[in-house]
Write a structure and sequence with these properties.
Length: 269
């Protein structure tokens, strides 16, 4: 199955992208899965919990984080992808802004690129084109180092949509098949809590015919809008709102919490 066929699958809920961070410094689970054995165990746990996609990353994008070298990122993720891909039975996404990392990950068995760089690097677009794989175009304001201090101003939602539409149009013009485009408005990436919540409440509006991915998992805006909930419970609630408003894919840490929340809501419980 081509990964893009997943986006059309009638499930009654968005697809769930389970997060597997192979980093020492991610804001939620940094350092937990640095060994290949622990990484594989967690990937299978995500699968058993209901994940439709596993998203593997080797560089943190938490607010204030520093970039890592290409070689460090490759060392962290490629061996895990090679071991996981033949056995997992669902697509693997690589969370990277580096074209060479994406290229090697696809050769190792990944089949989706999740680019926080928003396909602003044509080399990344060319990698997606040459492998005929889906690419997630992510909006970010500033860089991970400035996410917590430099926030968008003015009509943030309109600016996010303009950027996503422009990058999608550019990628298609360069040769990327429209079926391989997913848009992510970038929760927490240079947005304040009010802007993040507005994104959640208008998830599908950003799509323009493309699937929209929303990644609210354990992010700081949740404590403002869901103050009585712990982070995974709040993530599930935000995911439910995103689903109601047109999100096609939800990127989360605790897959089972989100799946169970969506099932309860669908059943009217």
């Amino acid at each position: 199955m081509h990964p893009s066929d997943l986006w059309k699958r009638p499930e009654g809920r968005p697809l769930i992208m389970g997060i597997l961070n192979l980093t020492p410094d991610s804001f939620s689970d940094g350092g937990a899965y640095l060994s290949t054995n622990n990484a594989l165990k967690h990937a299978y746990h995500l699968l058993e919990s209901g994940a439709d996609v596993i998203d593997i990353g080797g560089e943190s994008s938490r607010p204030g984080s520093e970039p890592v070298s290409e070689e460090e990122e490759i060392e962290r993720i490629i061996c895990v992808i090679k071991e996981l891909a033949p056995t997992i039975g669902i697509p693997i996404s690589v969370d990277t802004a580096k074209p060479r990392v994406a290229e090697l990950s696809l050769k190792a068995g990944a089949s989706i690129i999740n680019d926080i760089g928003g396909l602003r690097n044509d080399d990344m677009t060319d990698v997606a084109i040459s492998h005929d794989v889906p690419a997630v175009i992510v909006h970010m304001h500033g860089t991970p180092k400035t996410f917590g201090t430099d926030m968008m101003e003015g009509d943030a939602l309109a600016e996010i949509k303009r950027f996503l539409n422009e990058r999608a149009e550019h990628a298609v013009g360069r040769g990327l098949d429209e079926k391989n485009i997913i848009l992510d408005p970038g929760i927490g990436f240079g947005k304040n809590p009010e802007q993040d919540m507005m994104i959640i409440q208008n998830s599908g509006w950003f799509g323009g015919g493309y699937p929209v991915l929303i990644g609210p998992s354990r992010k700081r805006f949740l404590s403002k809008h869901y103050p009585r909930m712990e982070r995974d419970e709040a993530t599930a609630a935000a995911s439910g709102t995103a689903a109601e408003n047109g999100a096609a894919i939800l990127r989360v840490h605790n897959v089972s919490a989100v799946v169970q929340f969506l099932e309860r809501r669908r059943s009217g419980l």
